[in-house]
Amino acid sequence: MTDLLTEQPEVSLRKTWRPFRPRSGKPLSNLAGISSQPLASLGWILFTTSLLAALTAGLLAPADPWTSVSTPFQPPGAAHWFGTDDLGRDLFSGVLFGLRTSMLVGLTGTSISGLIGILIGATSGYFGGWLDDLLMRLTEFFQVIPRFFLALLAVALFKPGLVTITIVLGLTSWPMTARLLRAQILSLNEREFVLASRALGAGTAWIIRSHLLPNALPPVVVQLSLMIGQMMLIEASLSFLGLGDPNIISLGYLLRNAQPFLRLSWWMFLFPGLAIAQAVLAFNLMGDRLNDFLLRRYTR
Amino acid sequence: MTRYVLRRVIQVPFLLLGILVFTFFLIHLAPGDPINALAGEYGNAAYFAEMRARYGLDRPIAEQLFIYLKNLARGDLGTAYTYGQPVTRVILERMPTTLLLMGTSFILATSVGITLGFSAGRRPDSLVDHSVSILALLGYALPVFWLAQVMLYFLALKLGWFPIQGLTSAREQYTGLRLFLDVGHHLLLPAAALAIQQIALVTRLTRTGMLETLASPYVLAARARGLGSRRVDVRHALRNALLPVVTVVGGRIGFLFSGAVLTESVFAWPGLGRLLLEATLARDYPILMGMFLLISLAVILANLITDLVYAILDPRIIYT
C-alpha cells in the first residue's frame, strides 16, 4: 500500500498496477464519491470554493487589496468581512487575491516539474543503459539539494518575484516524479501485453504512447496533485520570510504583515492562514481521492 | 551489501562537491554585490576596489571557487563579512539552539505520531481511527509558521501559559536547574509547532503500515498460535509497520530544518534560521556557503544512515 502523500517510490515499486480502464458505471460520479465518502465531498467543496475564489477574485473582491479603504485595525464586520489591516486595507480582498497567487504558483510549478519529471522518467525507464545511469545520477543530485533553501537563495539573490519562485520550485521538485515514472515503466516494459505488441512489430513511439504512458501515468498524476499543496506552502513560507514578490499580494505576505500585530488583531493572522490551510487541504484530499479512483486501492 | 554500502559512502563527497560548486556559482553569479555590506554604502571607488582585493572578490569566479575549495579542504570556511569572525565559529555558536529545537520536535513527532498511528491502525474504521486520520490530514495542510502564530496567540498571548519569545527569560539570571526549566518552558511552543506536520506524517505512515501488516498472513498465524492481541499488535505488526516510517522520517531532515527557520522567525528563537536570513539579506557569501554545506551534509548523511538502517532492519531487501 503506497502512501503517495509521503512520496515513497520504493513502496510503490512493490505494487503491480492493473491496466488502466475507467471503472464501469459513471466515472465522474465515482470520482466525486459524494455518496460514499464524506471526506471526499469535503475535498470537492473546498476545492471548488478555492478554485472559484481564485478565478473570480477580481470580481468578488470589494476593494483593491493594496489600497487603504477604511480605518486601520477594524475587526471583521459587515463592511469588511475579514476586517482591515494596519493600513486600513480590506483583508477579504487580500485573501482572495492571495489565494489566486498561491494556486498560480502551485499549479504552474507543478506543471513545470511534472513535465521535466515525466520526460526524464520516461526516457530513463524506457531506454535504460548509460542514459538511464546518467539521468539517475542527475536525479539523485537534485534530490539531495535542499529545495527550500535553494528557493530562498534564488529569490533573495536574484529577482525576488513570483516567476523566480515558481521556476525554482518547478526545476527542483521533479526527481520524485521521474523516479516514480521510471519504476512504473521498468515494470511495465516486461509485461506480457507490451512484449506481445513488440513481437507484433509495434514501434517504440507507439508502445510508449498507447501502452506505457496510459498505464504508468495514474500514480504520477496522483503524486503531482499532492505536490501542488506542498508548493503552495513553500511559496507562503518564502513570502512570510519577506522574500516574496513585492508587487503581488500573497497569503504569506499577509501573514508576515500580521506578525507584529498578533496581540492587537487576531483577524489579520487567522483568515489568511485558514485560507491557505483549506486550499492545501483541498488539493491533498483531491489527491487522495484521485489515488483511490485511479489506483483502486481500497475496495470498501 | 558491503558493495552497496561502499558505493553509497563513496558517493557522499562527490554529491557534496557537486552541490558546493552549484551553490557557489549560483551565489556568485547572482546580481548584487556584498561590497556594500563590507565597505558601507558611501565609500569611494578606490576604497571599494581595495576591499574587493582584500576579500579576493576581484578575481575570476573559477579562481575564487578553487581558493574556497582549497581552504575548505583544510577545514577553513572563510571569514564572515558581517561578523568579521570565522564562519565556523559563527555557525557553531548558533547551532546548539537550533539542534535543541529540532531534536525536541523530532522526538515529540516520532513518539506522538507512532502512538497515534498505532492506535488508529489497530482498529480501522473505529471512532479513534477516524478522528486521528482527520487530525493527521489537517496537520499536514497547515503552514508551520501559521501554526506557530496561532499557538503564540492563544497559548502565550491570551492564556499566558508560555513565554512569548526567545530562549530564556531576559530579566532573570537563572542557573542550574532553574535555567534548564526556563529554557524548557521557552522551548515547548516552538518545538510543538514544528512537530505538528511531522506528527501528521508519522501518524499517517504508521496507520497505513499497521493496516497493511495486520492484514498479512503472519499476523493471522501469530493469532492462531494463541498469542495475546496486544503482543501480536506490538511485536509483530507494529515492528514491520514502522519500516516505512524510518525511511520517510530520515529523509525529512531538510524539511525539519526549513520548518525550524520559519518557527525561529515567529518565536524570535536565536538559532541558525535567523543567521541564514540575516546572511542572505546582507549577501554574506561565506556564511551562505557554510550554511548550505551544513544543510546539504546533514541531508546527505541522514539519507545514507536511513538507507543503511533500513537495510539492517529489513533483511528482505537485497542490495547490489
What does this protein structure show overall?
The complex is a heterodimer of chains A (300) and B (320). Chain A starts with 8 loop residues before the first helix and ends in a 5-residue tail after the last helix. Chain A is mainly α and 300 residues long. Helix content of chain A is 69%, strand content 0%. In chain A, helix 3 crosses helix 5 (91-127), helix 5 (91-127) packs antiparallel against helix 6 and helix 11 (204-240) packs parallel to helix 12. Chain B has helices at 2-29, 35-39, 45-54, 61-73, 87-122, 127-141, 144-158, 176-214, 217-224, 229-241, 243-250, 253-267, 272-282, 285-313. Chain B has 320 residues and is mainly alpha-helical. In chain B, helix 8 (176-214) packs across helix 10 (229-241) and helix 13 (272-282) packs across helix 14.
What tags apply to this protein structure?
heterodimer, A: 300 residues, mainly alpha, 13 helices, 0% strand, elongated, B: 320 residues, 14 helices, 77% helix, globular
Summarize it.
The complex is a heterodimer of chains A (300) and B (320). Chain A is mainly alpha-helical. Chain A has helices at 9-14, 27-32, 38-55, 57-60, 91-127, 129-144, 147-157, 162-172, 175-189, 192-199, 204-240, 251-258, 266-295.
Biggest chain-to-chain interface with counts: A-B, 49 and 56 residues
Strand content of chain B: under 5%
Work out the strand percent of chain A: under 5%
Unreliably modeled segments of chain A = 1-35
Radius of gyration of chain A: 22 Å
What structural class is derived from the secondary structure elements of chain B?
A: mainly alpha
- Name the structural class of chain A: mainly alpha
Oligomer type: heterodimer
Termini separation of chain A: 15 Å
Number of E-state strands of chain B: 0
Number of helices of chain B: 14
Instruction: Give the integer mean of the pLDDT values of chain B.
Output: 83
The helix/strand order of chain B is HHHHHHHHHHHHHH
